[in-house]
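B., you asked whether I could sanity-check this one before it goes into the benchmark set. Here's the sequence:
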Amino acid sequence: MPTISMFYGILILMFFRDNRRHHLPHIHARYQGDEASIAIEEGAVLDGSLPQKQLKLVEAWIEIHKEELMLNWDLAVQGEEPFRIPPLN
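And here's what the prediction gave me:
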């Protein structure tokens, strides 16, 4: 489960071959003890939760990096290493 970005204490991860459970391109975001799976296309929380402030930051980051995230998704589904994406500044 490679960490593809980190900002404001939030870890953004993308797992290898992780298209079976949610069937949608998504990322995993962790903040302190919370974790959520978030769809890349529409930004919907698929599973779990994050504090509202951190969720808004992740949603903004997804919107900025949507194209890169979709490229990473294609790599990860094929079992290849996704690349790092710049953090939210």
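One thing to flag: The radius of gyration is 12 Å. Otherwise nothing jumped out at me.
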